Amino acid sequence: MVKKKAYAFLSLSLVFLFILTACSQGKESAKTENGDGKEVTIQYWHANIEEERVELLKELIEEFERQNPGIHVQQVPVPEEDLPNKISAAMGANQLPAIIESGIEQMLLLSEEEVSDTKLHEEIINEIGKDDFFKGVLDTTKAPNGNGYLGVPMYGWVQGIWYNKQLFEEKGLEPPTTWENILKAAKAFHDPANKKYGIVIGTQKDQFTEQTFSQFALSNNATIFDEKGNVNVDTPEMAESLDFYKELAKYTPPGAESWREAKEMYLSGRVPMAMYSTYIMGDLSQNTQLAKSTGFAIPEKKNKSSFGQITSFVITNTVSENERNAAKQFTKFLMEKENYIKFLHMSAGGQNPTRKSIAEDPEYLDHETLKAFGEVASQIPFALENLQRFDVINGKIYPKMSDVSAQFIISEAIYNMTEHGVKTDEVIKTVKDKIEKVMK
């Protein structure tokens, strides 16, 4: 009995020693050069947790590894809602991966913590071809200090006005691009007696309302901050934008509206136009007739303004130089035409290319979801050229805007104005006071 215990103890000890040795070797291989015959392993975190997306990424990784012997990529799917906590925990333990696929909030966090290789991102963008990226995409990923980029922009969704071209033609109306044309169409189609309305825009106290309003405000050069970072809402341009939005809201369905109503009302044919992101394309493609009749427009007054979110590859500077080089190679591999198109087609329409050449490439457009929209499909990604956000002024990001958005200061003001009749000057004063408190 004693002998068996001794053997068992010895066996467990050997197993433990083997695990320690393997971990040590794995850790060493992740920090050695692949050019001298040794291997390098990098981790790639992303939020594409759906089984089919994980499988597609696995295929792309296998092809990359075949073309790049000695480099191994471990994909780590992370639910989007868990990513902030996972990043924070990894930073605390100094165990960040080589690549994190993330949106603007996480990119800003990593940059503020000085763990993002912003100069390497710029190097990759330049090597791919800076002129091929949409201007709005680069503006919204430029590092706040102007030193490089927060990440390498991989894809983005964009928001605008989806409208039924056939109905517009029947009424002899121009596409809803200018403020005048948008309001004219909303009035022409508004028929509440038959439960049909002119448009759906955000009027609820939520992020969607801030996003939809931002497109009208920024198209009129109405900003939250000026170029020096001072609160800049008390302007004629902002007052004019709020007045117009309040007028337009008269032609929405009764009650405070959000993204759910926008999608449902347009898909059911109860409104001829609604503001929504490109993620509506999947649902629209199921109705072939409606998809073919659907156009896409962005508000325009003094300039054109779309809203959207860019997802980028952030390469961290906490890993070894060899790992950063491997991360650079993998990023550039995914941006190569054939691989990039496969990557984007994981969510066709939702994931729009950040590169102009790909947006109009026949191979990119050769997808069932995109083909349902005809020539409109190639036009939609170009709205990223005019991408504008309240937190970006002349290509400089103001991180404080995230605090303003988190407290729903803008959307609450819209809600009070459209649902409770609060006057424009009162709304502006309240917004200004609240934002100035946030800035302290």
UniProtKB/TrEMBL annotation:
Can the keyword Transferase be found in this entry's annotation?
A: no
- Signal peptide bounds: 1-24
Residues crossing the lipid bilayer are none
Q: Sorted alphabetically, which keywords does the UniProt record give?
A: Signal, Transport
Q: Please name the InterPro entries in this protein's record.
A: Bact_solute-bd_prot1, SBP
Determine the domain of life of the protein's source.
Bacteria
Q: Which SUPFAM superfamilies match?
A: Periplasmic binding protein-like II
Q: Name the PANTHER family for this protein.
A: ABC TRANSPORTER PERIPLASMIC-BINDING PROTEIN YCJN-RELATED, ARABINOSE-BINDING PROTEIN-RELATED
Family the UniProt entry places it in: Belongs to the bacterial solute-binding protein 1 family.
Q: What is this protein called?
A: Extracellular solute-binding protein
